[in-house]
Specification:
Blueprint (H helix, E strand, L loop, with lengths): L2 E5 L3 E6 L8 E6 H14 L4 E2 L1 E2 L1 H5 L3 H11 L3 E4 L2 H8 L7 E4 L8 H6 L2 E5 L2 H14 L3 E6 L11 H9 L7 E7 L12 H13 L7 E2 L3 H4 L9 E2 L22 E13 L4 E2 L5 E2 L4 E6 L16 E4 L2 E6 L7 E4 L13 E5 L5 H8 L3 H7 L5 E5 L6
Parallel strand pairs: 3-21, 4-12, 5-6, 6-7, 7-8, 8-9, 9-10, 10-11
Antiparallel strand pairs: 1-2, 2-21, 3-13, 13-16, 13-20, 14-15, 16-19, 17-18, 18-19
Helix pairs in contact: 1-3, 10-11
């Protein structure tokens, strides 16, 4: 599907090649808020480089639009998950920008990775050997980051692997280590002792390897304090407004707003039921609205129980199960005549963001944000970016 880009003096609108009025909902992305969040995080980490994680299409918000704004705000280092993401990102940032691929490169993609100036993260001894073989083939040292598993058992070299590299330094011949990194498992719970344990483990492992800058903190880790910042921090979700923890107010600016159109309004009588499975039943007269957003648009089918929409500051509880393309909300407390078909209700706004939706659905803001569908008409606000 082709995408049409329209440029205005202070607003960039990106949508499929049908007009906005054909879409069921409008997702507004505040690029100035993303830039402000980057600047806030950068200011909190004065002794470290502040990178920007734009994997999964900038957490679903559009790397093509977001990455240039982050670079204008000061980001020089970007992180993605896959080689293809890095290759796409290369066209949206300046040639001097540094792009790191968190998963490293599969053997067939390693040459494309390094020839495009992407830095692979080496997560295993096998990846170390593969990059060394490529360095021999190309006849030059190759830049790489090395990830160490400090307790999460997900990515990175184990303690035994680190000892192997320490005892056999020739395994790193032809590899120029420019970063040694790990990832915190419990950074969103600052009181968890695992955070300090992982920091100690990273420092102990790194002491056995060639000297290189260290990186441990992602979004939540930044708020654990200076000891966790090391040489480079890697915020991702925090750039997009997700709260770093639940221990206090969210210091980050809200980034997204989602407004869904009302498709139909109807009057219910006592005993009438709503939705698949008829799981909700009216206990008296109710007015309900069916709106044009469903689980295909990022709202979990079973997440309706505590979820809601908003209209004029009024909370509109979601009733019954969410369908693929729609959901039903209770508008009984909105006076008749104040709300009608084709009006919009808020599913995300500055007061009720992705973290609140996540709490209602029993998940995390990351999942909600990255699940927002591609059917929305997208509006990028507060930018002079010329796309």
């Amino acid at each position: 599907m082709s995408w049409v880009v329209a440029v205005a003096s202070s607003c960039v609108s990106v949508s499929p090649n049908w007009p906005a009025h054909r879409a069921g909902a409008v997702l507004t992305i505040d690029l100035a808020a993303i830039a402000a969040n980057y600047c806030l995080l950068d200011a909190r980490t004065p002794g470290a480089l502040c990178a920007a994680v734009v994997k999964s299409d900038a957490y679903g918000l559009g790397a093509a639009q977001v990455a240039p704004v982050l670079e204008q705000a000061g980001a020089r280092h970007f992180f993605v998950a896959h080689v293809d993401e890095g290759l796409a990102l290369r066209q949206w940032v300046s040639p001097s920008a540094h792009i790191t691929v968190l998963h490293g490169a599969r053997p067939e993609a390693a040459e494309d990775c390094v020839r495009s100036g992407l830095r692979p993260v080496l997560n295993s001894l096998e990846q170390v050997s593969q990059l060394q073989a490529l360095a021999d083939k190309l006849g030059r040292p190759l830049d790489a980051a090395l990830q160490l598993d400090t307790g999460m058992s997900r990515f990175g070299l184990s303690g035994a692997d680190v000892r192997t590299l320490a005892q056999e330094p020739e395994r790193l011949r032809g590899i120029s280590l420019s970063l040694i990194m790990s990832h915190l498992a419990c950074a969103d719970t600052p009181e968890n002792p695992a955070n300090a344990e992982q920091l100690k483990t990273l420092q102990a492992y790194a002491a056995q390897l060639p000297k290189a800058p260290l990186s441990l903190a992602a979004s939540s880790g930044i708020f654990l304090g200076e000891a966790f910042h090391q040489s480079l921090v890697r915020p991702g979700a925090a750039l997009y407004g997700i709260a770093p923890n639940t221990s206090g107010p969210n210091p980050l600016a809200s980034v997204v707003k989602l407004q869904a159109h009302i498709l139909q309004i109807r009057q219910l009588s006592k005993g009438d039921r709503v939705g698949y499975g008829l799981t909700w039943q009216a206990d008296g007269p109710r007015r309900v609205a069916t709106i044009a957003t469903g689980y295909a648009d990022g709202f979990a089918r079973q997440g309706a129980g505590k979820g809601c929409a908003w209209f004029g500051g009024q909370r509109l509880p979601i009733l019954g199960r969410i369908s693929m393309d729609s959901m039903t909300v209770d508008i009984s407390h909105i006076p008749e005549g104040q709300i009608a078909a084709d009006d919009t209700v808020d599913l995300l706004n500055a007061s009720y963001g992705v973290d609140a939706v996540a709490e209602a659905e029993g998940t995390i803001g990351y999942e909600v944000l990255t699940s927002l569908g591609r059917r929305y008409h997208r509006v990028y606000e507060n930018t002079e970016q010329n796309i």
